[in-house]
Write a structure and sequence with these properties.
The protein is an alpha/beta fold. It contains 15 helices and twelve strands. A hairpin with a 2-residue loop joins β11 and β12.
Length: about 325
């Protein structure tokens, strides 16, 4: 038999899912109208809201900004004390209020009307002051809260977050926003590490351990030792990468006559390579999944080496 806490948790989940289903069923052309408006403006999407709506609004503004739609949050209280000047006629305002009667939004609403700034109203009540003032209405579900008292914003804030995500993702898709664009907005942390490309980390130029195919074993070993990447790439007369020798290859080839051999004699032919635009996380996956203990990959362009990346480079960048 489930305890009361589990029963309460499931009730909260069910109630919030119910609110999302209601919102899903009520989606209409107003969503497209709001997206058209947000996409065509020359300025930014200014998000505002008070209390819990403000906290959610800050998140929505951050999500928009990180997915290619310039946006920031303006607190309605600060707006009434000078921050209205941050809103220009090239912008649009997304105002959030569950009831639609939040008095702190009145100055922003009046400002938008005075200067012809498009206003998107996000509220459950189309007949509220905010609902009537908006150029476009995005209606939140009016299905109460998960809170048993019917007071604490729960289902309503969840629906607001999801509606904000709907806007952000739809705009991302409309604009053809790519992983590269996303990386440029997320250079730090784990996410930034996974979105880095091989070109960001690879060793290039004089750092690459390379020898010609007829290089002596002495030259090969000296080059491998000097570059400290545990391998050496082997080139043909046209500068194409035709093979690779790792320190493991050297150990396996040890014999009394090894020093009389050439690089071409012990190299692994047609080594696994990648391109410079490969994601670092993908390069690490290739190294881990080859089954041969590869810890280095040469980066090639039209068969010619332009860099080399080591597993330690990927791990150091946080792509594990």
């Amino acid at each position: 038999m489930e305890n009361k806490d589990i029963i309460s948790a499931k009730h909260t989940i069910d109630k919030e899912i119910e609110a999302l289903r209601i919102m899903e069923d009520s989606l209409n052309g107003n969503l497209t109208e709001a997206l058209d408006l947000m996409q065509k403006i020359e300025g930014r999407v200014i998000v505002t809201g008070m209390g819990k709506s403000g906290h959610v609004g800050s998140k929505i503004a951050a999500t928009l900004a990180s997915t290619g739609t310039p946006s920031f949050f303006v607190h309605p209280g600060e707006a009434s004390h000078g921050d209205l000047g941050m809103i220009t006629q090239k912008d649009c305002v997304l105002a959030i209020s569950n009831s639609g009667e939040t008095k702190e939004l009145s100055d922003i609403i009046v400002y938008c009307k005075r200067y012809g700034i498009p206003l998107i109203a996000m509220t459950k009540n189309p007949e509220s002051a905010l609902g009537k003032a908006g150029n476009v209405l995005l209606q939140l579900p009016d299905d109460g809260e998960a809170c048993p008292l019917g007071l604490a914003p729960t289902s309503s804030t969840t629906a607001t977050i999801v509606l904000g995500d709907i806007l952000a993702i739809a705009l991302l898709e409309r604009k053809g926003f790519t992983k590269t664009d996303f990386k440029q907005r997320h250079p730090g942390g784990k996410l930034g590490a996974f979105l880095q490309r091989v070109s960001d980390l690879m060793h290039k130029g004089e750092e690459m351990p390379l020898v010609q195919e007829n290089a002596s074993m002495e030259e090969t070993i000296l080059t491998m030792t000097a570059k400290m990447l545990g391998c050496v790439g082997v080139l043909d007369n046209n500068g194409n990468l035709i093979g690779m020798i790792t320190d493991g290859d050297l150990r396996r080839s040890m014999s009394n006559n090894i020093m009389s051999q050439k690089a071409v004699d012990i190299m692994t032919q047609n080594p696994k390579t990648i391109t410079e635009d490969t994601m670092v996380a993908e390069a690490l996956r290739i190294m881990n999944n080859t089954g041969k203990g590869i810890t280095q990959l040469f980066v090639v362009n039209n068969g010619k080496p332009i860099g080399i990346i080591h597993m330690h480079d990927c791990l150091k960048a946080g792509a594990a």
